[in-house]
Write a structure and sequence with these properties.
This protein is an alpha/beta fold. The protein has four helices and seven strands, in the order αβαβαββαβββ.
Length: 155
């Protein structure tokens, strides 16, 4: 019986800690994010909605030349996606989850930014029913080093 009680206490503590971490991310002060996207891209506007739902103040810049923005801010070609955003000195490329952007802003690593290369199904803005591709959020720095920032499992 003592083992069962200890297990229950452990589980309650674990759920409490997870809940506290999620609440900290939710209560973060609103942050302005500047998004540069093509006028013909529907998934980009869905990603903007995801950001707004997660307390970001979105400044939407529709442009026919997103590539110039990517080049200007140092997005490596192999990490490119359909839109580029700027937030507090960092570059956000593609369908990066809001939680990873908040994590980046909290940790403040010495990187240029983070990216979800391509357009994986199941990322924010790329919702297609219940299907989800496995994908990684990749950080990139001025020395052209890339590292896995977060991993997401598919189904």
């Amino acid at each position: 019986m003592n083992k069962v009680k200890m297990l229950l206490v452990f589980l309650l503590l674990a759920f409490n800690l997870v809940g506290q971490a999620e609440e900290q991310l939710k209560t973060m002060e609103p942050v302005v994010i500047e998004v540069y996207r093509s006028p013909s891209c529907g998934c980009c506007s869905k990603w903007l909605g995801h950001l707004k739902e997660n307390q970001f103040i979105v400044k939407d810049h529709v442009t026919d030349d997103v590539k110039t923005i990517k080049d200007k801010y140092g997005v490596p070609e192999k990490l490119e996606s359909c839109h580029t955003a700027l937030v507090n000195g960092y570059v956000i490329e593609g369908h990066v989850p809001a939680s990873d952007i908040k994590k980046l802003l909290k940790l403040k690593p010495a990187v240029i930014g983070i990216s979800v290369p391509g357009m994986p199904v199941g990322t924010p803005g790329m919702d297609m029913g219940g299907r989800k591709d496995a994908y990684k959020v990749i950080s990139f720095d001025k020395d052209k080093q890339n590292k896995v920032f977060s991993r997401y499992e598919g189904n």
